[in-house]
Amino acid sequence: GLTRHLHKLAGRTRQPFRDPSKDAVSGTCHISMYRQEAVRDAFRHAWKGYKAFAWGHDELQPLSKSYSEWFGLGLTIIDALDTMWILELREEFEEARRWVATELSFNRNVDVNLFESTIRILGGLLSTYHLTGDPLFLSKAEDMGSRLMPAFNTPSKIPYSDVNIGRGTAHPPHWTSDSTVAEVTSIQLEFRELSRLTQQPQYQAAVAQVMERVHVLEGKLDGLVPMFINTNSGQFTHQGVYTLGARADSYYEYLLKQWIQGGRKEDQLLEDYLQAIEGVKKNLLQRSSPTGLTFVGELSHGQFSPKMDHLVCFLPGVLALGAHNGLPADHMDLAKELMKTCYQMYVQMETGLSPEIVHFNMYEGSSRDMDVKLADRHNLLRPETVESLFYLYRLTKDPVYQDWGFQILQNFNKYAKVPSGGYTSINNVRDPEFPSPRDKMESFFLGETLKYLYLLFSEDPNLISLDRYVFNTEAHPLPIWTSAE
């Protein structure tokens, strides 16, 4: 009804929707409601495909009307639980809850990735428990958490990457005894919270040991960490390569967020975070040519590479959140500059959707700011840019961030929406005629991307307040601990 009503309004004035910043307050409110409803429509469409063709399985393959399994644990359902609650899709939520109550069992002979199952399954269950107060989700979270603990049985206490949750065994990947630094340092929010809720200290103790170990390790550059760490020796390996993209990204995010989660008392985490941001500024920040976009590159054995993963677009949001928690104001300035760059990674593509990786031009006389290699032209429906847009809007109230987010949602609808239900990743963001769909809807599209879009369009600062909750790296909100605890 709202959409029809808005169309009537638009028809009466013979004008399309305008930039809400130029509207009266009531107009802004209408537009926000309209945009939030557009997100709910997108969720319903995605859910329709999942229900019809992939129910109870990990991920929907919307084109072949089938599914793919990763862990075989209904990953999309668990990842989307709190999104449905926040979007007030109660019918869908109840259906999902019934599945969790009657079908979800972790007693299975299956290997799961410690990091992915912690952030998606453990994080999703804990967050849903907090939002609903329903003990079902806490008991499932505790079951999962206890089954992940064998990962920490290593000579160095740096966890293995893979756990068999039925057998209680763990091992590194077949090709190496290394774990990824981001993976072992981005499970802390969830395990710490599990300890707090269950009054069982072993979960927090296991992940705290990892942070303490990484804190003192040799091989950092101005607070920046290498990408791999050995589970036997507990030392960094493949040293000399520094990135804020894949394999290192969420280490930095969780330094800040653990400090916030714990009530801003753990100085070591804060020191490591502040040092790392200075390291980014000193070693990885550059400007592109011709328009001078600020970007975060990579360093490999002293050589700077102007390569930036879409994953790095988590950084503007984290910087803004830090500034909101009393960290230096120039963190917010940098957040705004990088936010603009991440938006340009969408705008400068023919589909208006960002590729997985861009290379920025730094040479005078470049005709465009960024190039995209053929192998990097895919878009996986990733959340990082809309995640940062949410933080920037929530903390600055500048409506331009909402406008940017709505454009991105419209382009998902234009190039990634599958008529029979669901959304698909695409292979080529530079070809609007044939973006070359990949036939996969990642669980994070429902767990993160649509949730952050909905929150971005909300005018209610208390809808998952940033002073009461901290989001894990899969967009699952967990409570900030009050001093009484």
UniProtKB/TrEMBL annotation:
Alphabetical list of SUPFAM superfamilies matching this protein: Seven-hairpin glycosidases
UniProt keyword Membrane, yes or no: yes
Cofactor(s) required, per the database record: Ca(2+)
EC number: 3.2.1.-
Binding residues for Ca(2+): T473
Places the protein is found: Endoplasmic reticulum membrane
GO MF, one annotated term: calcium ion binding
Disulphides: C313-C342
Topology with respect to the bilayer: Single-pass type II membrane protein
Pathway: Protein modification; protein glycosylation
Top-level taxon of the source organism: Eukaryota
Residue ranges that the Swiss-Prot or TrEMBL entry lists as coiled coil: none
Cellular component terms (Gene Ontology): endoplasmic reticulum membrane
Catalytic activity line of the entry: N(4)-(alpha-D-Man-(1->2)-alpha-D-Man-(1->2)-alpha-D-Man-(1->3)-[alpha-D-Man-(1->3)-[alpha-D-Man-(1->2)-alpha-D-Man-(1->6)]-alpha-D-Man-(1->6)]-beta-D-Man-(1->4)-beta-D-GlcNAc-(1->4)-beta-D-GlcNAc)-L-asparaginyl-[protein] (N-glucan mannose isomer 8A1,2,3B1,3) + 3 H2O = N(4)-(alpha-D-Man-(1->3)-[alpha-D-Man-(1->3)-[alpha-D-Man-(1->6)]-alpha-D-Man-(1->6)]-beta-D-Man-(1->4)-beta-D-GlcNAc-(1->4)-beta-D-GlcNAc)-L-asparaginyl-[protein] (N-glucan mannose isomer 5A1,2) + 3 beta-D-mannose; N(4)-(alpha-D-Man-(1->2)-alpha-D-Man-(1->2)-alpha-D-Man-(1->3)-[alpha-D-Man-(1->2)-alpha-D-Man-(1->3)-[alpha-D-Man-(1->2)-alpha-D-Man-(1->6)]-alpha-D-Man-(1->6)]-beta-D-Man-(1->4)-beta-D-GlcNAc-(1->4)-beta-D-GlcNAc)-L-asparaginyl-[protein] (N-glucan mannose isomer 9A1,2,3B1,2,3) + 4 H2O = N(4)-(alpha-D-Man-(1->3)-[alpha-D-Man-(1->3)-[alpha-D-Man-(1->6)]-alpha-D-Man-(1->6)]-beta-D-Man-(1->4)-beta-D-GlcNAc-(1->4)-beta-D-GlcNAc)-L-asparaginyl-[protein] (N-glucan mannose isomer 5A1,2) + 4 beta-D-mannose
Assigned keywords, A-Z: Calcium, Disulfide bond, Endoplasmic reticulum, Glycosidase, Hydrolase, Membrane, Metal-binding, Signal-anchor, Transmembrane, Transmembrane helix
GO biological process annotation, one example: ERAD pathway
Major localization class: endoplasmic reticulum
Active site residues according to the UniProt entry: E116, D249, E356, E384
Family the UniProt entry places it in: Belongs to the glycosyl hydrolase 47 family.
Function: Involved in glycoprotein quality control targeting of misfolded glycoproteins for degradation. It primarily trims a single alpha-1,2-linked mannose residue from Man(9)GlcNAc(2) to produce Man(8)GlcNAc(2), but at high enzyme concentrations, as found in the ER quality control compartment (ERQC), it further trims the carbohydrates to Man(5-6)GlcNAc(2).
Record protein name field: alpha-1,2-Mannosidase
Native source species: Takifugu rubripes
Gene designation per UniProt: LOC105418968
